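Tutorial, part two.
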Amino acid sequence: MTSRSPESIPTAPLSRGLFKGQEPRVLPAIVVHPLLTATDVARLLNVGERSVWRMASEAKAGQGSFPRPVRIGRMAVRWRYQDVQQYLQELPGK
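Running the prediction step on this input gives:
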């Protein structure tokens, strides 16, 4: 992952909670990485969806470095975009 220069980071104004006579400050905006479905991950990796589930199962068993999914509900799991990107960068030959 590349680091961003301070000038390229989006900012958001902060005006609540100011004392009398205090100037508003500008704070860096929070960058949120989306959660990806198995279909999204499969498209990023150029593999089938079943392969994503197989790699996740192998990683859970301690084989491989595939990122573990995040459970967001009883029947729903997602992968963090940042984790998948890091996995892609760590692949040999990339």
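The two ends are 14 Å apart (CA to CA). In part three we will examine how such features are distributed along the chain.
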